[in-house]
UniProtKB/TrEMBL annotation:
Residues 22-191 form the Terpene synthase N-terminal domain. This is Uncharacterized protein. It comes from Rhynchospora breviuscula. Its cofactor is Mn(2+); Mg(2+). InterPro entries: Isoprenoid_synthase_dom_sf, Terpene_cyclase-like_1_C, Terpene_cyclase_plant_C1, Terpene_synth_N, Terpene_synth_N_sf, Terpene_synthase-like, Terpene_synthase_metal-bd, Terpenoid_cyclase/PrenylTrfase.
Length: 543
């Protein structure tokens, strides 16, 4: 078959993205004050002490597991990391005996999510001799939901969990419409996105309301969850104001009208990577990096001529403000904003951390090399092989660069060894890039074709395998599941890299799943995420 296609990119292209939906809203927005910050924090501290007593005093194993799961589900697990670690370490040493599907699945999920190796054989008791799951379980909605969430933590070569996932999914699909809220709502969400892959902050917001509806909620835990949500929400709004002012000063709407204006969506995305207060610096840095990477992507994809693409790529390689002189006016803005951002980030780092900025700069250089390669192929009308397209596309997805960037603002756990590890493209980063790329290619297929872009990875695979789109999509979905299994595996393998950093990579890819699948391509269609942004940053909980 021919390895060329008709290319129209000899001049400029254009694509009409949805506009910024928020304007200056978060510059002036303040969360309605129900109580003073001092009162909130004092009351929260008192409640934390009560919850610690609850955790330590709970003697029954199932009661203890349920307590830990509730605390994590309500979004306050980060407040009790030492206590939870102690409980789960003790649980791991137990021989847990139960014939209740929900209890066994909960035990499995808690341990595996915490990085403890636990065998899938724990579910053998629920199978028939032929390996199928017992039909008597098909009406146990709570048990099936717990099994489905547990099975989403599957690693490679786990056939029992593979069967469990399909069994639970099919069972829940048949039951969901007959269930009552809040269980019906939880099942509906899980069918789109299993709990371990869901955005933790958003899930906590939903679950706080749902937990309040339960027959016997623990009011100490519930009150703490509400208080903490509002305290953290106020911090997030302060950060949104800061990055909104930074973005307004950049003013891409006026200067770079062709590009996506997505600073609020970028911050929302990064809230899914780390929402906790201790990661404030990291969150602001990564949100800015994502927003600017989006501008660079759109510059290469939808606006710049090939010669402009080449000039910008050469300037970035030199990384010298004087190189801006050779660029067109709009490219000068892009280029100098990029350099200024990296300088700004370096200035915010401690003296012992400043070396980290060099990894960010090299990440941007590598990213732009991949963008330029794609621009050259498009201008030449070259139809790359599947492997050629995949190798470049995994880099142009920006995921390797952003995985590294997610470490930059974190504290001492982000060691030099961690930066060396993430930049060697270990299997976890490769798997993350593949999952992100395959999801984006499938979800964004129609949009990219309307933009007359370079053939996608999906296009190249279809051509090479002489395969229909539907058949290729099935294969991509299989590869996506395999990528998730490898990501889950990374939690269980010993490494010199802190689990705190490993979790950022997992959360990053989970947010791609949430934004593109659960929220229907929300980064490119911001109306699809507006209500979720309002839930997290505009609407406080009533106390």
């Amino acid at each position: 078959m021919e390895d060329t296609f008709k290319s129209e990119k000899f001049g400029r292209k254009s694509y009409a993205y949805q506009p910024n939906l928020w304007g200056d809203f978060f510059i002036t927005h303040a969360v309605p004050i129900q109580k003073s910050n001092k009162w909130l924090k004092t009351r929260a501290d008192d409640l934390k002490d009560e919850v610690r007593i609850l955790i330590k005093s709970s003697a029954d194993t199932v009661e203890k597991m349920t307590l830990i799961d509730t605390i994590q589900h309500l979004g306050i697990g980060y407040l009790f990391e030492k206590e939870i670690d102690a409980v789960l370490t003790n649980l791991r040493a137990l021989t847990f005996e139960s014939n209740e599907l929900h209890e066994v699945a909960l035990y499995f999920k808690l341990l595996r999510q915490h990085g403890f190796p636990i065998s899938e054989d724990i579910f053998l008791k629920f199978q028939n001799e032929d390996g199928s799951f017992k039909t008597t379980l098909s009406r146990d909605a709570r048990g099936l939901l717990s099994l489905y969430n547990a099975a989403s933590l599957q690693i490679c070569d786990e056939d029992i969990l593979e069967k469990a996932s399909f069994f639970a999914h099919d069972g829940l699909k048949h039951l969901v419409h007959d269930l009552k809220s809040p269980l019906r709502d939880q099942v509906s969400r899980a069918l789109h996105t299993p709990l371990p892959k869901m955005m933790k902050r958003l899930e906590a917001r939903w679950y706080i309301d749902e937990y309040e509806e339960e027959e016997t909620p623990n009011h100490v835990i519930l009150e703490l969850a509400k208080l903490d949500f509002n305290i953290v929400q106020a911090l997030h709004c302060e950060e949104l104001k800061a990055i909104s002012l930074w973005w307004k000063n950049f003013n891409p709407k006026e200067k770079l009208g062709y590009a996506r204006d997505r600073i609020i969506e970028s911050y929302f995305f990064i809230t899914g990577v780390y929402f906790e207060p201790q990661f404030s610096r990291a969150r602001i840095i990564l949100a800015k990096v994502v927003a600017l990477a989006t501008i660079l992507d759109d510059t290469y994809d939808v606006h710049a001529t090939l010669e402009e693409c080449r000039q910008l790529a050469h300037a970035v390689e030199r990384w010298d403000k004087k190189s801006a002189e050779i660029l067109d006016e709009y490219l000068k803005i892009v280029y100098l904003t990029l350099i200024n951002l990296c300088e700004e980030i370096e200035n915010e780092l401690e003296p012992s951390e400043k070396y980290r900025a060099s990894y960010l700069i090299e990440g941007f250089k590598t990213l732009i090399r991949s963008y330029f390669q794609e621009a050259e192929w498009l201008a030449q009308g070259y139809f790359p092989t599947f492997q050629e397209r995949l190798d470049v596309s995994l880099i142009s997805s920006a995921i390797p660069m952003l995985c590294c960037a997610s470490f930059i603002g974190i504290g001492d756990v982000a060691t030099k060894e961690a930066f060396l590890w993430v930049n060697q493209n270990p299997d976890m980063v490769r798997a993350a890039s593949e999952v992100g790329r395959f999801i984006d290619d499938v979800i964004g297929y129609e949009r990219e074709h309307s933009m007359e872009e370079l053939p996608s990875v999906l296009d190249c695979y279809m051509k090479e395998q002489n395969m229909t789109k539907d058949a290729a999509v099935i294969r991509f979905e299989e590869w996506t599941r395999d990528g998730w299994r490898r990501l889950n595996q990374a939690f269980l393998e010993p490494t010199a890299v802190s689990p705190v950093l490993i979790e950022r990579i997992f959360n990053f890819i989970a947010m791609i799943h949430v934004m593109y699948i659960h929220m229907c391509n929300g980064f490119n269609e911001p109306t699809n995420v507006k209500k979720y942004i309002s839930l997290l940053y505009v609407e406080p909980l009533c106390i």
